[in-house]
Amino acid sequence: MTIHQLDKQDSILNNFISQLRAKNIQKDAMRFRRNIERIGEISAYKLSKQLLYKQEKISTPLGEKEINLINENLVLCSILRAGLPLHQGLLNYFDDVENAYISAYRKHTAKNDFEIVVEYFASPSLENKTLILADPMLATGNSLVAVYHALLKHGKPKKIHIVSVIGATEGIDFIKKHFPENTELWIATVDDKLDEKGYIIPGLGDAGDLAFGEKL
Q1: Which architecture, in CATH terms, is 2-52+72-212?
Q2: Residues 161, 186: contact at Cβ < 8 Å?
Q3: Cβ neighbour number for residue 118 with a 10 Å cutoff
Q4: If you write DSSP's letter for every residue of 181-193 in order, what string do you get?
Q5: pTM
Q6: Which residue, of 17, 107, 172, 200, is most buried by count of CB atoms within 10 Å of its CB?
C-alpha cells in the first residue's frame, strides 16, 4: 500500500485540520462539515494526479485544442453517515463519477468490545473500475476492511484509493494487511495511538456526531 500523508508538507490544509480538532470551533456543525468537505477537495486534486489520462480534441468558438482528460471509470463510495461531507468534497471535483453508499457501524457488546455491522448497501458494478473509498476516521481499520469485503459482491475493482481525514498508525497497519498491494491511501494527518475503546487520540471526537448531531 502506498500512503500519501498530505500534511507532511505545510499548506492551507493545516488550518482546516486545526479547526476540525479545536473543541471550541468544531461545535459549529456547518463549519465542521465544510472543513471535511474542503479536505475532500484537496484530496481529490492530489489523487487526480495518479489517474490515467487520454488526449482529446476540444472545439472552442475559435478553433480546436488538445487536452489530456481523465480516462478511468471511477466509483466513489462513502461509509455512512460520517463519510457524507468527505464524499461531497470529492464529488465537487470528480463530478461525473458513479456513486455508492454503504453503512458500517460499531455494535458494542457487554464486554466493552465491538463488531462491525454492515446494513445498507447501494452500489453500481465495481468490476474492473477504479474505486475511491471515503471514510473520514481511520481508527482500528475494521470498518474499512468489513466494507471492502462487502463491496466485492459488486465486482473486483482494478484499483482502490482510500481517502481519510485522520487516521491512527495502528489502523493503517491493519488495512495494509487486508487491502490489495496496489491500494493507495490519501490521508490528511495521522495520530499515533488509539484509546481502550478504539478511538483516535488526540483525534477530534466522533465525526458523525459533530457533523450531524448525536445519535441514540
Answers
A1: 3-Layer(aba) Sandwich (3.40)
A2: yes
A3: 16
A4: TT-EEEEEEEESE
A5: 0.90
A6: 200
